[in-house]
Amino acid sequence: MLLAGALAARGDTSAALKESTAHAQTNFEQARTRHRSMPGEAAAAWQFGRACFDLAEFAPSSDQRAALAEQGIAACRLAIAHASNSAPAHYYLGMNLGQLARTKGLEALGLVDQMEAAFARARELDERLDYAGADRHLGVLYRDAPSIVSVGSRSRALARLKRAVELAPEYPENRLNLIEAHTKWGERAEAARQLQALQASWPTARTNFVGAAWAASWVDWDQRYQQLRRKLEHSRPPLAAPRQKL
Question: Is there a single domain that holds both residue 110 and residue 136?
Answer without folding.
Answer: no
